[in-house]
Specification:
Elements: E1 2-8, E2 11-20, E3 23-33, H1 36-40, E4 47-51, E5 56-59, E6 64-66, E7 77-80, H2 88-105
Antiparallel strand pairs: 1-2, 2-3, 3-7, 4-5, 5-6
């Protein structure tokens, strides 16, 4: 997960960028109401989560940023980045590969073939 500081809807936000099963998604988590010019000096600065329960992030210079409602903060925006969603064929291929892996882990197929029990008897 990548986290940076950005400005959205009059708020300085921590933006978490995650690459999940459905593609790349960005969540804007508000830190505080901030003037645009002040936020511009912080825009794009990488931050690291140091305490998820308290919603605390620290940048490379050691500056601390706490989410507006601490660990309970809800995102003010969520965006799925276009072109990052998996195609139907990719989803099907992954499902197929997962099924094969599970199948192989269970010892593969143990099909029983019928043998001709009359052994040539008529």
């Amino acid at each position: 997960m990548k986290a940076t500081l950005e400005y959205k809807d009059d708020f300085l936000c921590v933006v978490e960028e995650k690459n999940g099963a459905t593609g790349l998604a960005k969540k804007w988590l508000p830190v505080s109401r901030t003037d645009y010019t002040e936020a511009q000096t912080l825009h794009g600065r990488p931050v690291t989560s140091v305490n998820q329960q308290e919603g605390i992030y620290v940048d490379e210079e050691g500056n601390v940023y706490q989410l507006a409602d601490k660990g309970e903060t809800k995102p003010i925006a969520v965006e799925r980045l276009p072109g990052t969603e998996k195609t139907e064929i990719e989803v099907l291929l992954e499902a197929s590969l997962r099924g094969r892996k599970t199948h192989d882990q269970n010892g593969g197929s143990k099909r029983m073939h019928r043998t001709n029990r009359n052994n040539g008897r008529e």
